[in-house]
């Protein structure tokens, strides 16, 4: 009954010539865009390394299983040491052999940083730049750091102090098996913050700032992980943040607060 009423309602609407023309134009634009995407997709597949075709939009993601690294490794038997695969809309080249990885990473064109990968972390200066711009900014930053005393004086004292603290924390373990990652990350994080602000944060009076820095380090590592779905489909990050999925809203707040602190 409801369907019939809806059908009757739309049957009474008369579209003018302008509306019809607009709809036709939109339809043509969508068709052309899809055609361009298809041609680009097929061209890349033809010219790039061998690999599975996958599906539109999602690529080969549905077929990777719970252990993607093992699935990609197994493809070596069919496609060789270098394979190409679409992970979502991202065209990805997988290197399945150490010698190939070493050779590729020795080439300057393989060292570019993905700007989309770090977009969620806010402004990172020259850290996400590439090419000549990166070389010039890196040169300037290193020279400025040397002028400020990099590697000597107060900077060296800050690093040595944090290193001593880390050693004391390790001694407390007394040789027992333990996951050292949290302690190591905490020490590295404290060293970097000390160099940035020129002093160590007080564990008693500035505990909230220390916690903020640790939370930021955790969120930064999680957000830029290559296996993170939002790294493959960047648009998902904002959607997850709005819908409060998987803690992305909290991550965005942490990143915002850290940038304000800096």
TrEMBL record:
Keywords: Iron, Membrane, Metal-binding, Monooxygenase, Oxidoreductase, Transmembrane, Transmembrane helix
Keyword presence, Plastid: no
Transmembrane segments: 15-35
Classification via InterPro entries: Cyt_P450 (IPR001128), Cyt_P450_E_grp-I (IPR002401), Cyt_P450_sf (IPR036396), Cytochrome_P450_fam2 (IPR050182)
GO MF entries: heme binding; iron ion binding; oxidoreductase activity, acting on paired donors, with incorporation or reduction of molecular oxygen, reduced flavin or flavoprotein as one donor, and incorporation of one atom of oxygen; steroid hydroxylase activity
GO cellular component: cytoplasm
UniProt superkingdom: Eukaryota
Family in the record: Belongs to the cytochrome P450 family.
Name of the protein in its database record: Cytochrome P450 18a1
Source organism phylogeny: Eukaryota, Metazoa, Ecdysozoa, Arthropoda, Chelicerata
